[in-house]
Amino acid sequence: MKKIIIVDDSESYRSRIKRDLEANSYTVIEAINGEDGVKLCKQHLDADAILVDMNMPGMDGLRMISILRQEDDFQKVPVLIVTTESSAEQKSQAKELGVIAWIQKPISGRALVKTLNKLL
Predict the structure, then answer these.
(1) Does residue 6 contact residue 17 with C-beta atoms inside 8 Å?
(2) Where does the chain have alpha helices with state H?
(3) pLDDT tens per residue, range 53-91
């Protein structure tokens, strides 16, 4: 089974996406913000992908990704941004950090599963 880490401060969003991913044979680890995301990613080095929200209290998604990309273990882990944001500047920064997809919320669980199946 593929392991996905979801980093998002919205409990309802995480729950909905987790349910949809698990129904499609993904294992899901949930983090509630960027700080928690960094910690959990370091505990789950076997993650197949990381889904990150942009706007979270404390550490935002780009900062979290920047910290992870400094670690050898996370140089090649696929990272997808799932956000309501659409700023060209943020998209450019994400691309520089090696983010493989920028997905606009709201996204259905079915569409996200389809995207992950193509990317992984």
Answers:
(1) yes
(2) 11-22, 34-43, 61-69, 88-96, 109-119
(3) 999 999 999 999 999 999 999 999 999 999 998 899 999
97: its two tokens:
């950090």
Count CB neighbours of 63 within 10 A.
14
Residue 99 structure tokens: 């983010």
Domains of the chain (ranges, CATH numbers): 2-119 (3.40.50.2300)
Dmax (CA) for the chain in angstroms is 35
Percent of the chain scoring above 90 in pLDDT: 91
Query: Residue 5's CB: how many other CB atoms inside 10 A?
Result: 22
Q: Which two tokens stand for residue 107?
A: 């996204």
Q: Cis link prior to 57 (omega < 30° from 0)? A: no
- Alpha-carbon gap, residue 39 to 114, rounded angstroms: 28
pLDDT of residue 47: 97
